[in-house]
Design goal:
single chain, alpha+beta, 2 domains, four-stranded antiparallel beta sheet, three-stranded antiparallel beta sheet, globular
Length: about 350
């Protein structure tokens, strides 16, 4: 059974322990930027905690004292009560499990929670879309064939895996190598099985896989129709505006920290900027269907946003990890070594 701690004194006191006195001085320009951002658009507590857990804690085992988490998110204006409430909800929803140790509490990712984080953050940290051969995956899921309680979950899974709804019950996306279709089918019983087929854009050459030559032309027309409607189906204009807003908001602070030598960046400040950057980038990137370049406008800002996030993430890693290590030490524990895949985040595009 999950619980919210009812004896906060020990956790709160531990969270207020001071960090090391030898840390480099904070950059006043960066401090002003953080204050302005938090004043203009303070993140919701639960959403920011998900970011911190997925970005900083999961690579180190996903387990943390509640007091350490309270200390990590306090600089973002998230108080102890909000942390406890948010963590309780994550535990109730199956993301976290709690264990008590005297008057203190430790939370860890469940297996299901770890899988969810892995799926989400694989999309956040990977390069823009892989090469595309012009083939589309098309799924028919007529609403009247899907039980009402499952429609919402199915719709969410379609959106999560990059499918757009081109008409009622007709979903499609540029074909890609992942396990989306088995997950979609798993949401339904056999009697409500999805109808799946492929189509190919008429300009890409060749017929759709498994489609007889006589029918290939029709599938080519379908592929061309899907391609022509991608801007409206996926609301690319709105998504592009969000990417440009991200670039405008974070460009100056990234440059300010870039100008400082590695050993002159304040760890706490660097961790704060990295967290806010990943939080904002995550919100945009998880809505991005990650379409291939052939389907995107020529001035698409998603690639520039990825490049900014990649460059800063690499630059910030030593100082941000130093702050995380200090936060764990202040709580009387050692930070577990990072998983190997942590060092592979934000690779160069292929």
């Amino acid at each position: 059974m999950y619980h919210i701690d009812v004896m906060p004194d020990d956790d709160a006191a531990t969270a207020r322990k001071p960090g090391p006195a030898t840390a480099p001085a904070a950059d006043p320009q960066v401090a002003r930027w953080v204050r302005r951002l938090l004043a203009d658009a303070r993140p919701r507590a639960s959403s920011l905690i998900v970011t911190v857990w997925g970005d900083a804690l999961a690579p180190h085992g996903g387990t943390v004292w509640l007091s350490t988490l309270i200390g990590l998110v306090a600089p973002f204006g998230i108080n102890e009560r909000l942390v406890r409430t948010s963590v309780f909800r994550l535990a109730r929803d199956g993301w976290l499990a709690a264990e008590a140790a005297g008057r203190r509490s430790r939370y860890r990712l469940t297996a299901a929670g770890a899988q969810r984080f892995a799926q989400a953050y694989r999309r956040v940290y990977t390069p823009p879309a892989e090469p595309w051969d012009g083939q589309w995956e098309v799924v028919l899921a007529p609403p009247d064939r899907v039980p009402p309680p499952r429609r919402r979950a199915l719709r969410a899974e379609f959106a999560w895996t990059g499918f757009g709804e081109f008409a009622s019950g007709i979903w499609a996306r540029p074909a890609r190598a992942d396990d989306a279709l088995p997950r979609l089918s798993a949401l339904l019983d056999d009697e409500f099985a999805l109808t799946v087929f492929t189509a190919r854009d008429r300009n890409s050459g060749g017929a759709a896989a498994g489609v007889p030559p006589a029918a290939a032309a029709g599938h080519g027309e379908l592929g061309a129709t899907l391609a022509s409607r991608t801007p409206t189906v996926w609301e690319l204009g709105s998504l592009a505006a969000d990417y440009r807003h991200f670039l405008a908001r974070f460009g100056s602070v990234v440059e300010a920290l870039r100008r400082r030598p590695d050993d002159a960046r304040d760890p706490a400040q660097t961790f704060a900027v990295r967290t806010l950057l990943v939080h904002e980038y995550r919100r945009v990137r998880l809505r991005d269907p990650q379409l291939p370049a052939a389907l995107l406008p020529p001035d698409w800002p998603g690639a520039a946003a990825y490049a900014l996030a990649r460059a800063f993430y690499r630059l910030a890693r030593p100082a941000a990890e130093s702050h995380l290590e200090s936060a764990f030490a202040a709580g009387g524990e050692h930070l577990a070594p990072a998983l190997p895949e942590f060092l592979l985040r934000f690779p160069d595009p292929g």
